Amino acid sequence: MLMRTDPFRELDRFAQQFFGSQTPGTWTRPTPMPMDAYRQGDEYVVAFDLPGVSPDAIELDVERNVLTVKAERRPLDTGEGVELQVSERPLGVFSRQLFLGDTLDADRIEAGYEAGVLTLKIPIAEQAKPRKISVTTAGDGRKQINA
Q1: d(CA 16, CA 1)
Q2: Please, how many CA atoms are within 13 Å of residue 36, restricted to the half-sphere of its CB?
Q3: Confidence (pTM)
């Protein structure tokens, strides 16, 4: 099972429910690294939107079933004589943590980056997959049941 926690995101949701929809002039904390997660067969797939982030500015670490994704969006190298008029895209280091359940194989995570989307494939551990167990009877016959 894939678990995530972001206490500030939950607080934002609560505030939006309590105070209603966003009104002009109010500030809402943007999510700099939005993600989707879903199960596909024997693996979980997690996709992070990281537009404008160079692949060498992405770090993935796993420690004690906690997967940390860090990405840095650096300022554009505009060169000399360029005067920036508008800067709305957030810059800096962004980080998300996912808590991986014991049923996932953190040693075999695969990562790919294409078109500004970081995709992680996290396989389900072999010991967590359903399997058949053979049950023998006193006679010669065998019977299969699901475990």
Answers
A1: 28
A2: 7
A3: 0.67
